[in-house]
Hints:
Helix content is 41%, strand content 22%. It has nine helices and 13 strands. The radius of gyration is 21 Å and the shape is globular.
Amino acid sequence: MQSSAMEAGRQRQGRLWSNLKEVCDLLHIPAACTISSEELLFQHVQFKTGQRIHTIGQPFDTLYIVNSGFLKTVLIDEFGNEQVLSFPMKGDMLGVDGIHTKHYSSEAVALSDCDLILLPFKKLTALGRIHLELENVMYGVMSRELVREQAMIGMLGALSAEARVARFLVALAERFAQMGYSSKLFNLRMTRHEIGSYLGLTLETVSRTLSAFNEIGLITVDQRTIGIKDPEALKTLRRLPPSRSRAKQLAASKIKSGNEPQPAPQLLAAL
């Protein structure tokens, strides 16, 4: 992956800053045309892998935009168990859950070295009162995050375990493409346990499903490196046939193709 910490911003007093247009470009929203591009500068802050950006109950004062890197947001219960809520990456906004109560209701943790842009909320709201178009586009960004969460809730209630993992891989591949990276080969920054927590599945189910996808030729798996071989099949997959049936069909397929690992036609029909 290319180094993207300098994709937006400029140095000032030894720190990296971005102007409003660069922030809007990163969020994929139209820039507020009535505001000078140099009228407002927003500071960047770097976090190392494992560092917390904000914790549950911490007073809310800042929204964060991911300029580079990967994170997770989690809820933590009284016993210390984590429930993963999201995996923010470049162009995503963090901290929206703190607006209502003035305290962050989730914890954000860096899964890799990250570069985040700080949006002090008081400064943002003051600017929004003067420039209404900025306020509107920021509401649009927050609404986009909400729609994404609602789509996830709908998926959890309607899809099988295999379909959840398949849609997760497709969504991840699409996000990598949007960021200018390969959608066919990428590294998972999150663990299988974290994926399971996000999808409402056990670690064992996630690992077993990835192995099954690898067996039938939908993906390749090399530890955390995932290769997407058949994105269309992943998009439409509903449920895998039983493992015993898969083994028989794959054996027949290998004999037919001269031991070349190809997805069996009967198996793809079952998807």
